[in-house]
Amino acid sequence: MRLILAVFAMFLTAVAAHAQLYGSRPDGTRVTSLAPAAAQAVVLYFVATDCPVSNRTFPEMKRVRQAFAARGIAFWYVYPNITEIPATVRQHQAEFDPGAPTLLDDRGTLTRLARAVATPEAVVLTSSGSGWKPVYAGRIDDRYLRLGVERPAVQNHFVERVLNELLSGQPVEPATGNPVGCAIYRPGEAAATR
Q: What is the CATH number of domain 34-183?
């Protein structure tokens, strides 16, 4: 019996070693799965504690998350900057969207996968074999025309549109324009390009 348990433990260790590591929650728990198998898609919101444009966009991100989470869409707030620390991220999330799924992309795994360049930026992933592939990467909405120039009201809700397209089986319309916000800070890594 001990031999069987030892072999099983070695098997679990080997499986864990090969599991994809996406980052860690602010409490230090490592994240190896972005969504349950039944998820229709995953939305990654790239955000930063010190980016005013990202902070100003939180109500829209939260609204979309609340509207689609029950419809088979998984959501994560991803903090990609290497300068982010867990305590500050916990405090930031408590202020802007308490209890929402949050992770620090401490190894840059999601930033590279999504080719994210700015905060705020949304990336929508769909299942691709044993992993995830981006089907949309870009702006969350059109509130900002450019840095410092903001519309009085949002006219286009891009992430909401993309999720409705996915759920209705329509082709996803690509992003138009680059995200407006703060550059992702990962010194020593090549900047993402699209």
A: 3.40.30.10
